[in-house]
User: Which sequence fits this backbone?
């Protein structure tokens, strides 16, 4: 099963993709996580993209296409994958078609997580992330047990550089301009399934699994 999650930043795609990954035993490929890992390791690629990522802009399409092509050719993606955060532009969506064609694969489901702008801005501003395991918390709706500490790793949570208020607005603008057309692209192709990302997590999980299993 080859799945793509699309939707605005902060819609909960990462959390949902992790659930689907565990349920269907296919890798969760988050291009944002991959770029952050490169930045943390201080690699050449990490240094190259750092300013762009922290300012909320998008990394160059050719570079992203190449990163995804390499990742999808790894053995763990043979029996399926979940892409989260890619494609983010029409150019990336078309390149993905080419990449998959060359691998004799296709997309089975594109899941659009729909969350209104007001809630997105609130969520991103209240988001804190564990620097060790990457788990996200929301200080209003899903706070950690102890003040600003990860429940699992017991280290201090951080605010991602690009979750700072001035960058959040920029990311949403970039989403509307460049990523919204990707949703339309998959709608035209008939592979798009929408989910209401404001529902309770348990309900989202149930709907997602039904959608992927083709019961919806
Ligand atoms: P995310 O964690 O998906 O919100 O991604 C964080 C940041 O990484 C984005 O704001 C972009 O700067 C960069 N990024 C992640 N995926 C892509 C992509 N497919 N194309 C371009 N930039 C990306």
Assistant:
């Amino acid at each position: 099963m080859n799945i793509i999650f699309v939707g605005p930043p902060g819609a909960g795609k990462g959390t949902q993709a992790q659930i689907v990954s565990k349920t269907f035993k296919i890798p969760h490929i988050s291009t944002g996580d991959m770029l952050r890992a490169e930045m943390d390791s201080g690699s050449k690629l990490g240094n190259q993209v750092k300013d762009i990522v922290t300012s909320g802009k998008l990394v160059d399409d050719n570079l992203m296409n190449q990163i995804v092509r390499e990742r999808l050719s790894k053995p763990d993606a043979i029996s399926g994958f979940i892409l989260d955060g890619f494609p983010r532009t029409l150019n990336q969506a078309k390149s993905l078609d080419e990449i998959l064609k060359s691998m004799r694969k296709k997309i089975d489901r594109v899941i659009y997580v729909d969350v209104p702008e007001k809630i997105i801005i609130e969520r991103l501003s209240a988001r804190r992330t564990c620097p060790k395991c990457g788990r996200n918390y929301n200080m209003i709706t899903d706070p950690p047990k102890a003040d600003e500490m990860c429940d699992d790793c017991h280290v201090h949570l951080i605010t991602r550089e690009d979750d700072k208020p001035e960058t959040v607005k920029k990311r949403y603008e970039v989403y509307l301009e460049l990523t919204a057309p990707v949703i339309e692209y998959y709608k035209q192709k008939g592979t798009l399934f929408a989910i209401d990302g404001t529902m309770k997590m348990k309900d989202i999980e149930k709907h997602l699994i039904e959608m992927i299993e083709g019961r919806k």
In short: Helices lie at 13-24, 31-41, 44-55, 61-72, 90-102, 117-126, 165-189, 201-212.
